[in-house]
Amino acid sequence: MKLGIVGLPNVGKSTLFNAITKAGAESANYPFCTIEPNVGVVSVPDERLNVLKEMYDSKKVVPTAIEFYDIAGLVKGASNGEGLGNKFLSHIREVAAIVHVVRCFEDENVVHVDGAVGPLKDIETINIELILSDVEMLDRRILKTQKQLKADKSLMKEFELLERIRKVLEDGQSARTMTFTADEEELVKSLNLLSYKPVIYCANVSEEDVVAGVDNDYVKEVKSFAESENAEAVVICGKVEQEISELDDEDKQAFLEELGLKESGLDKLIRASYHLLDLISFLTAGPQEVRAWTIRRGTKAQQAAGKIHSDIERGFIRAETIAYEDIKTYGTMAAAKEVGKVRLEGKEYIVQDGDVMLFRFNV
Prior knowledge:
The chain is of the alpha/beta class.
């Protein structure tokens, strides 16, 4: 899963990136310090893996992972080449979802590219640039479809859909605010519109605000806007996350407790990412390794097997399946089998989050 971190310059993008990936992307108090999209991979925390490791005495644990792309700061006019321009808009097209970092703190020592903190204005600046880039692409597609219509009238529905999307974009609304039929959605996905990509608005607040646990007025604005777009919103403090990233697991937990926090901002961001993209994890376990595999909710057992290896999908026979909570309760697969908690599922079975699966196959 690839997530692109975007936002205006100096909102805390690279600070957040450094914290969640420990990759050391340059962070400086001036625009465009990120010239190429830094890429970092972060493991998805999953306590279930550690429980299974103890149970199976596994040699190693392999969590699933998320790729974060730290994309350079956009400015007003980027779609026309301002700042670092279309180069960075193209980087956004490569990601599954956008993490839009929004500055929700005051600090006279950190300059704001527009001179003053204003989350909704910042969001609008970025969204308008994405929309303008989409309009430019749609204009080309509409012109092409219009020419093809002369010989193929079946393209009329596509032409009308393109025109409908363009009208919404011209009104300053993102494509993700629209609703589509299943057939229309297939076409919209193929367009790879920037303004249709799922978004998590990441409100970056001061340490005082995150410890207080009360949303400031800036955060309230961001959450309200996210709700209007059916997007996710999380509150983080980049500085706190950077401090956490430098600690081992035991010290990290103590630090969070000292601040009165139940979880890190990274954990909240990952959970929001999974919810936004409708993702779940199934698990495999044995003496060699315990591993988590990420799939979309609604994936069938045979397709889930393909995440491990195409041969397993091709030769799928059945999947021995048990819910994580059941194997945790009974302690071993053998004990769970005795009480009928282990099921034999066929290729049409819809995999559930936390299923522990053993695939039988023949090729």
